[in-house]
Amino acid sequence: MTRFGDALAGFGVTFSTMFKKPITEQYPEGKQPTQARYHGRHQLNRYDDGLEKCIGCELCAWACPADAIYVEGADNTDAERFSPGERYGRVYQINYLRCIGCGLCIEACPTRALTMTNDYEMADDNRSDLIYGKDKLLAPLQPGMQPPPHAMADGATDDDYYLGHISSEGGAHR
Ligand code: SF4
Ligand code: SF4
């Protein structure tokens, strides 16, 4: 195509765009839903009786290419149990100044403790409020859940939890 032809083709794009209806999102007054698998804020999930799924293994932190996750695990005891099994995540932090939303952390998690929500409203004006701890990341308690620490369901094993055999009434069903 000649240079004149190139110019005409370019102006053609401009010309055709002039008659299209503009798409202007009225955010924040009007919020559009995200795609279902949008990578938004993370969530630390619970079992149906309220115990935490996180076992403090740090695999998510090792998988993170941005070094955005900090985890400190600790031992559960019979007197103070936060998750089934031996360990739980005593400290869990995600630094959203570093996170690039890649989702590698949720792929690495062996218990599906860590998933991502569609929540994207996380802007803030200082560093410390963008480091989210368990207070912001833990899933809210649903009806029937008991806040940890508490014992595992009667007669239940770790496997019953991992296989999803625990009900919100605190019983194991196999
Ligand atoms: S989404 Fe990616 S960058 Fe963000 S915490 Fe997970 S692994 Fe790290
Ligand atoms: S969120 Fe998952 S991968 Fe990360 S420490 Fe907890 S159990 Fe391990």
UniProtKB/TrEMBL annotation:
The keyword Translocase is assigned to this record: yes
GO terms for MF: 4 iron, 4 sulfur cluster binding; iron ion binding; NADH dehydrogenase (quinone) (non-electrogenic) activity; quinone binding
Membrane topology field: Peripheral membrane protein
Broadest EC class assigned to this enzyme: translocase
Main location: membrane
Cofactor descriptive note: Binds 2 [4Fe-4S] clusters per subunit.
Domain of life: Bacteria
Bilayer-spanning residue ranges: none
Purpose of the protein: NDH-1 shuttles electrons from NADH, via FMN and iron-sulfur (Fe-S) centers, to quinones in the respiratory chain. The immediate electron acceptor for the enzyme in this species is believed to be ubiquinone. Couples the redox reaction to proton translocation (for every two electrons transferred, four hydrogen ions are translocated across the cytoplasmic membrane), and thus conserves the redox energy in a proton gradient.
Family: Belongs to the complex I 23 kDa subunit family.
Quaternary structure note: NDH-1 is composed of 14 different subunits. Subunits NuoA, H, J, K, L, M, N constitute the membrane sector of the complex.
Name of the featured protein: NADH-quinone oxidoreductase subunit I
Primary gene name: nqo9_1
